[in-house]
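U., I forgot to send this yesterday:
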Amino acid sequence: MTVLIETRTWIQVCQYDDLLPERGAAALLDAGQVAIFRTHDGDMFAISNRDPFSGAHVMSRGIVGTRGDAPTVASPMHKQVFDLRTGICLDDPAVRVSVFAVRVHNGVVEVST
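Result:
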């Protein structure tokens, strides 16, 4: 029997309580800029902060919401909507942003790149 052990590097970003629900925050990691979101129900998501349509690093300033059962963020530049779970643009499924694993550990938000 083979046992797989997941090894991730987790980078501490901020305190969970520092993030306001339905608002984004940007963090600079080795992988580049990451946009972190805390939804109204407390779920955490992390995506690339780069808007693939404009090239600007602004996704953390986007409008958080939902489309159907998908938690979303709308780019503040041209308002394309992205699924926070998958990074897929719901207005143009051929476009996506990178998604990162995020967790809360002892009250600290951590992102794995």
